[in-house]
Structure prediction request, 194 residues.
Amino acid sequence: MSEKTARFVTKITNPITAGLLSSFLIIQKTNLGSQNKIFWFLTVLIIGFLPSLLFLAWQIKKGKINDWYLTARHDRYSVLLITAFSSLTVFLLALNLGVDKLLLSFIAIGLFTNAALFLITLFWKISVHTAAAAILALVLIFIYSSFFVLTFFLVFLIGWARVALRKHTVAQAIAGVLLSTFIFIVIFKLFGFI
Prediction:
């Protein structure tokens, strides 16, 4: 496959798209009413995703960060820290408002994954693309149908794209998948979904 294909795969499967799609899919399967589903999706979008996205755009505009994909490991520190705190805020809000167990477990997965990505990034570069893609695949498999196990081929395609573009090593791409898969399974097991 070509570099053009790798760039296309990277663009359409960025962690924000994967995260928002995962959130939407989980929220649709909750026992919440329609208005609450909209409320929680907007909450995840505005509190969970928007702060780090706006910060990243601001840092790129100021010339402090070179690119949207945070190629340089040191560029990731502040963005991932903001993402972790945003996830913590959404989690505490969900805990205090007593949301659906499925949604709370998913928000916990986001919190622990984002915190782990931040901590690992302090020492080593790990693929956020593959971590987010693995969570999306696991949501499809565990919440919708085991038929979606085939979506893991897309996770591997994303890993290939990140390596082909020389943004990550094979180990970094695999580590992203393993990290988020481990966190997902542990939290789903704690919440009684597995």
